[in-house]
Amino acid sequence: MAVLVGANTRTYKFALGAALLDAAAEGQPDILLRDLAVPYAMGLVRHLGQAPQVSQNGERGEKDFLSVAEREAAESLRLGSPTEELLAAAIQSMPEMVMRKFHNLRGEGAGVPHRFYEVTGRSHERVVLLSRELRDIAQSEQAATLRGELSARWSIVETSFAAGIGQSLIREGVAVDMTTLQITDRQRRRSVAGVTDAVIGFQHGPCLICAELITPEDTIAVDHVFPYSFMRLLRLDEQGTTPDLDAIWNLAPTHARCNGQKSNRPPTPGEMTRLAQRNEAIMQSPVPLRKTLELTLKDNKHSSSRPGEWPRFIQHVRDLL
Ligand SMILES: [Zn+2]
Predict the structure, then answer these.
(1) d(Cα 200, Cα 208) in Å, to the nearest integer?
(2) Alpha helices in 112-164 (DSSP H)
(3) How far is the CA of 275 from the centre of ligand 1 (A)?
(4) 181 C-alpha to ligand 1 centroid (Å)
(5) Model-level pTM?
(6) 223 alpha carbon to ligand 1 midpoint, in Å?
(7) What is d(CA 66, CA 22) in angstroms, rounded to the nearest whole number?
(8) pLDDT, tens digit (0-9, with 9 covering 90-100), for 266-284
(9) In angstroms, what is the span from residue 307 Cα to ligand 1's centroid?
């Protein structure tokens, strides 16, 4: 949730999340801040070459860590490790900035219930204590899923920072390419992230059909919760619109075996509840996934601001059958 939810004006949080997962996977209870700063800085520098790491309207000063990273990117990539200037800037900015905000969620005073780390020691040799919770998750079988979610989220956010497409993504939300199961922007139709990686975190791990955990050994399928074939069975509602079943709101990662056994049946009450909860969770995340769902509600004449609208909308679709 630290990675999925929360406003982003820059992508520091993702670089820190990736560096923390790698450090904690080693199993050591602590790491020198300077050692954690290396993968953190290199993660940002690698992404800088692919997409902007700051929003178009984000203000930026000379001392902004990203300004330093941009200046030092080429040389750091050539060296395969951060330049001295980049490393010094990372060590200086991390505890004051990204490490202070990492546990925060959207909303006043909201935060994740665990601490993943604590920074101790003096300024010239600070130590990052990695919490039990962080080490447990980094060494669990869920770690691979978390890494996938993190990189999908990173990609969605940096795409929404890009000139041109970024604005369209924020205004119009995302589309889905059902052939490749990729989320795309509506303008260029280029891949932004995989559907599964982008939304599975909002289901908190379980398969939408059987409600059992999806593990890395499981083959995953993206299920149409209301089967796509129902499109022609849906009666027009009073407004003359039919909901699009090929869209994020109706797509959910499941075990491939559960998806295979499901066939063309309407969703069960349990599935409808889980889908509504998943969509309500996405509504708590920042643009553009939230925007996509808001537009679905709006296009179907449902309120996009009233809480609890997803159960009502999903029941409404069921009633159209
Ligand atoms: Zn299942």
Answers:
(1) 10
(2) 132-138, 143-161
(3) 14
(4) 19
(5) 0.90
(6) 10
(7) 22
(8) 999 999 999 999 999 999 8
(9) 28
Averaged confidence pLDDT in the chain: 91
Residue 73 has pLDDT above 80, yes or no: yes
Provide the sign of the torsion angle of the four alpha carbons 160, 161, 167, 170, taken in this order.
Answer: positive
Q: How confident is the model at residue 208 (pLDDT cuts 50, 70, 90)?
A: very high
8 Å CB contact between 90 and 82: yes
pLDDT for res 238: 67
Q: pLDDT > 70: what percent of the chain?
A: 96
Tokens coding 23:
């450090």
pLDDT band at 169 (very low <50, low <70, confident <90, very high): confident
Contact 241, 227 (CB under 8 A): no
Nearest CA to 17 out of 150, 149, 194 is that of 150
Q: Is the dihedral of CA 313, 315, 320, 321 positive or negative?
A: positive
Query: Which stretch of DSSP H or E encloses residue 221?
Result: strand 220-224
For residue 146, what are the CA distances in angstroms to 68, 220, 272?
29, 15, 25
CA of 108 to the centre of ligand 1 (A): 36
